[in-house]
Amino acid sequence: MSLDDALLTRLAERAETLLARIESLLPQTPEPDWDAAVAFRWRRRHSALGAQSWLAPVRHRGMISLDDLHNIDEAKRLIERNTRQFVAGRPANNVLLTGSRGTGKSSLIKACLNAHAAQGLRLIEVDKTDLVDLPDIVELVADRPERFIVYCDDLSFEEGEPGYKALKVALDGSVAAASDNVLIYATSNRRHLMPEKMSENLAAKHTEDGEIHPGETSEEKISLSERFGLWVAFYPFRQDDYLAVAAHWLGHFGCTAAQIESARGDALRWALERGSRSGRVAWQFARDWAGSHGKQIRQADAPSAAKPGRTKAGRTKTAKRATPEKANGSAAAGSARSIGLRSR
C-alpha cells in the first residue's frame, strides 16, 4: 500500500469516527422503556442542533379509582364504557370533557387508566405546546400491542396557535388513516376550545367591507370540538353537594363524626374565600382541616387527589350519594356518610 493510500485510509477512519460523534448529538427519538410504567409524558428539549423529543415514563402516578369519584355517575358510565370498548379492540371515540373547574374531569381519565392498565391501557400526557408532535407520537406507538390514550389537560387555544391545526388533523383530517390503538382524551373549561367574542357577531355586517359568508368564522371556531366524537359536560356544585363531599374526605382522613359536624362552618367559609364550591375545593379543605387537627396522611393519598364532580344527569338529590365509603372504608367514613355536614 502506498503512502497516499495509507493516508486516505486514516482520513476515512477519522471521518467515520467524527460523523458517529456528530450523529449522537443530533436530535432523535429514543425507544421508550415500555415496561417502566403505564403512563408517560411527552418531553421536548431544544438545543443548538434542534429539538429532541422522547417519552418519559411516569414512575409515580396517582392511584385514584373510579370508586373515589362521586356524583358523576353518568360521566363515569360514558367514559368508562368508551374506554372499555377501546381496550377490547372495538370502535371508540375521542373524548372531550368540558365544564366547571375542579369537578373531576382529569381525575376521571386517571381513574380509567388505573382501572384498565392491567388490560393493556397506557396513557401519554402531552402539553398543549407539544401538540405539533402528535403525528410523531402516533407513529411511535402505532405498532405496539398496547392501547394508548393521548391525554391533554386544560386544553384551550388562542387564535394563531400552531397546536390547534395539528390537533384538528390528528383527530380527523389527515390523509393517513388513524391508528386503531390511539385515542385522544382532552379536558377543557371551554366548550369549543377557542374564545368566542361578541365583537365577532357585531362585525358580521352585510356591507362592502364585511365578509360574504360571516358564518364561516364561527364554523372554523367550532370545527375542532366537533371532531371529538364524545362530549361529556360537568357542572358546578350546589352547597349540599360541596358539604357532602367535604364530609366524605374528612372521614377518609380519619375524622370522627363529631369532628365532621363541627367542621361544617369552616368548610363553608373555605369555599366562600375561594369563590367556588367544587370537589377540588372540598378536597383541599379536608386536607387542611384534617392536617391542622393532627390527622396523618395515608400513603395512598400522596400521589393524587380525587376531585369528585357532578354532571347534568346527576343534578337530582345527590347529597347522600356524595359520601359513600371508599373500597377500603373505615368507621369514620361511615360516620361521615351519615352526617354529611348537614346544610341548614
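Above is the first protein from milestone M3; the second protein from the same milestone is given next.
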Amino acid sequence: MPAAPRPQAAVKSSVPEPVAVKGAPKAPPPPAPAAPPPKQEKVRQVLQQSEQYYATKTTIFNALIDTIDLSQLAQLDSDSAREEIRDIVVEIISIKNVVMSLSEQEQLLDDICNDVLGYGPLEPLLARDDIADIMVNGADTTYIEVNGKIERTNIRFRDNAQLMNICQRIVSQVGRRVDDSSPICDARLLDGSRVNVIAPPLAIDGPTLTIRKFKKDKLRLQDLVNFGSISEPGAELLRIIGHSRCNILISGGTGSGKTTLLNCLTGFIEPGERVITCEDSAELQLQQPHVVRLETRPPNIEGSGEITMRDLVKNCLRMRPERIIVGEVRGPEAFDLLQAMNTGHDGSMGTLHANSPREALSRIESMITMGGFSLPAKTIREMIVGSIDVVVQASRLRDGSRRIMNITEVLGLEGDTIVLQDVLKYEIEGEDENGRVVGKHRGTGIGRPRFWDRASYYNLERELALALDELGG
C-alpha cells in the first residue's frame, strides 16, 4: 500500500517586503468615492401639452385680444361670453391655417376661455378635489399639495403679466386690490378657499399666489375619524365638549387642519343659536341657519377705512351673540375674545398658531401684552384660566398626515403658573412599511375632567363616562 503523501511545510515567500525610502514620493491616496448625483425634482404632468401647443396658444390669444371688443364682452353673461370667444377663436384658427387635432382644438378653446373669463391655467387644479394647496412662484413654477406632500407640476402661465392679471381678477371679486402700491393682499375664492398674493417689487421672481383649497363636500367629525385624525372615543369626547358649550381654543402649526377642525366642531352648535364669526378672509363653512359672517377690511388707497379684527370682535358684543367664533387669533383681539368668553358667551371658539397647548396660552398672553394693555401678568393669566376651558392641539406629521395630538383642559393657577391636564394624547409608535406614521390616541386615566359638571348640566355625563372608559389609560 503506497504511503500517504506527507504535508508540505509552509514556505515563506521569497519576495522581499517593500522598504520605505526616506525622501521618496508618497503613493497617491486612493480615489474618493464619487458623490451621489443630486436628486432630480419630480414634475407631475397635469397637462400633456407640447411647446408648440403653447406657442400656438399665445399666437391665437394675441389675435383674439386684437379682434374682440372687451367692453361689449363684459356686458354678456358668462355662458354667452364663452360662446362668443369660442366662435372667434375657431375663425382665427381657420384663417391662420393652424393644423390641430379635434381634441387639441377643444383643449385650446377651453384654455383661452379660461384665460379671458376665468383663472387661466389654474382652472384644472381648482377643479380637482384632492388638492389642498396651490402655490404659484412666478409664471413658470407651480406646486400643489396632494395627500400632505408637495409636488411640482408642469402648469405654467404665458408670462408674469397674465399671472398678475389673474391675481387681480381673484382679489377684485371680494373688493380688494393688489398692485405696486399695495403688493400684499389676502382674499378668497367664491367657494371660500383662502388666497394670498404678494406681487413685485416685494416678490422678486414675479407674482406669488398661494391658494388654500377647501373640499367641495363639508367635512364632519366622522370624516376625521375615517381619516385617522382622531379615534372614535376621541371624537365622542369632542362632540360632548362642543355640546356642553365649553370655550375651545384650537392650536396648531401651518397646514395642520385647524380651520377644518373648527368647521367640524361647529357642527355641534344647536340650530337655534345665534353665531357670529369674525375672520380676515371668510372661510368658515358653518352649517347652522342663524350665522352672521363678518370680515375685516384693509385700508383704502389713501390709507384710511381699515376695519381690524379687534373692531369686529368688539362690535360682536353689541349684536346679541350666543357664540363668537374667531377664525384666527393673531393680535390684540385676543383680549376682547377672552372678555367675551368670560361674560356669558359660552361655547365660543378660536384658532391660533402654536406647537403645544401651553405655548398656545403663552402666545395669547403675549398678544394681549403686545396690544398695549398694561395689565400684570398674573391678571392676564387669571383671565385666560377663567375664559378657556379646553385646548385642542392639531399637528401635521412628517408623512403629511394630520392628527389631533392633545385634548387638554385648563385647570387653574398655581402661583403664577397655569395648570394644564391632558385628557387625550396621540402617541407615535413607529411607522409602517410604506413610511406612514403609526400611533394611537390614548386617554391619560382622567376619570372626572374639569368640564364634567358642565357636561352634567347638559345631561351628557353618561356619554362622557363611556367615552373616557373607551379611551382607557
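Note on the second protein: The radius of gyration is 31 Å.
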